[in-house]
Each structure stands twice: as structure tokens, then as C-alpha cells.
Amino acid sequence: MITVRKYREADKENLQKICIATGPGIKNERHRLSQLALYCDYFADCEPENIFIAADEADNAVGYILCCTNFAGFKTAMKKHYFKFTCRYDIVKWLMCRAELIMDEKLFKDYGAFLHIDILDGYQRAGVGTRLMDALLALLLEKGIKGVTLGVGSDNVKGVSFYKKYGFHVVKQGPGFYKLGIFTTERQQTDREKQHET
Ligand SMILES: CC(C)(COP(=O)(O)OP(=O)(O)OC[C@H]1O[C@@H](n2cnc3c(N)ncnc32)[C@H](O)[C@@H]1OP(=O)(O)O)[C@@H](O)C(=O)NCCC(=O)NCCS
Fold first, then answer.
1. For the whole model, what pTM was predicted?
2. Class assignment of domain 3-145?
3. Most-buried pick from 49, 57, 177, 182 (CB within 10 A)?
4. CB of 119 closer than 6 angstroms to any ligand 1 atom
5. Residue 43 CB: number of other CB atoms within 10 A?
């Protein structure tokens, strides 16, 4: 049975393992550090309150949803610390990430948050991603944040299908990627929540 719960500091190692296991094939140690810096460590270090974990029966994380609600903090931290790992790995990727920061800042003004979600292979397509997304959107609604965006490769069949099924709409499209968004008011109540209310 999978439990969805808030993140704890002790989850960080598993968070990093999931980030690497679900990402592109890692080419070398610099690539691994860059992946972690871009898609995992900032969130665990600076916005742990915005992370939900999917945990197995032994309470080990098998999936996560990470979210940034403080773009100014993100931008400063990435420039001062995390981007250097990407620069050491691949200068072109680093330049692209810096350019993406400008695009994401504009989207952030309209939505107020952005996210990453990853679930280990053996736990996918069993409703876990939907539960993590529900938990995050409920939190954002509670915090009065308008919505959330994300970036996904247009060749990521699972991801694109998952987000569209959940109700995300395309807010921007570029070569090989989509930026998708959803407003918290568009989130559908789960059957479980409806039952609680009756
Ligand atoms: C994308 C992801 C988060 C979805 O989470 P999940 O727990 O598998 O999704 P759920 O079970 O809640 O939702 C299932 C829906 O997602 C989509 N989906 C999930 N796995 C899929 C697959 N292998 N092929 C096609 N669609 C898939 C479908 O729309 C599916 O609905 P359906 O079963 O009725 O067709 C998960 O598959 C994942 O972590 N993938 C690898 C990492 C990744 O791509 N992360 C997103 C980066 S932007």
C-alpha cells in the first residue's frame, strides 16, 4: 500500500535516487550532480514544506512531487549555487537553463508555482501520480496560490498523457517541450474527498 505524506529530511537520499532513476541515463558524475542540482536539491533544501512523498509499506519514498512557490528565492539560489553544477557538466545546457528561467518567471507571475513529479517504474500507472498531484493542489489552494505550471518534453508520452488527463492545459509550446498549467480552482475533487463531505 502506498501512502502520500509530507516530506521529511530523512527522505532526501531516496528523493535523489528517484530523481536519478527517473531521469535521462546518467553519463558521468558531473551529469548526476547537475541533474540533482536542477531537479531535486533546491526543493529539498529550500522549500521542503512544498514536497509530498509517496511512501511504500516500509515508509521509503518511491515517488515525489516537488514545488516552488518562491520564484525570487529559486532564481537567486540557482544562480548563486545550483547552476554551477550544470555549468561544470555542460555549458550549453547551463545557458539553456538560464534562458528557461526567464520564460518560467513570466509563467510564474500568472500561476504562482511550478512543480516536478517522478515515480519509480514499478509504482507507475496505479494512481500514485494523481494522488500526489491532488495533495499538492490542495496545499496550493489552502495557501491561496492561483495554480501551478511545469515543463515536459513533448516526447515524454507518459508525462504528457498524465498531465492532460489530469486537466493541465498547454500554456506554451517550443521545440521539443510543452509548458503546461492548471489553476487550483480547476482541480477536480477526488471521490474520496467527496465521500468525506457526505
Ligand atoms: C508521469 C507520472 C508522474 C505519472 O504518474 P502515474 O502514477 O504513473 O500516473 P497515474 O497512475 O496517477 O495516472 C495514470 C495516467 O497517466 C498516464 N500514464 C501513466 N503511465 C503511462 C504509460 N506508461 N503510458 C501512457 N500513459 C501513461 C495515462 O494518462 C494514465 O491514465 P490511464 O491509465 O487511464 O491511461 C509517472 O509515470 C512518472 O513518474 N514517469 C517517469 C518520470 C516522468 O516522466 N516524470 C514527469 C517529468 S515532466
1. 0.95
2. alpha beta
3. 182
4. yes
5. 22
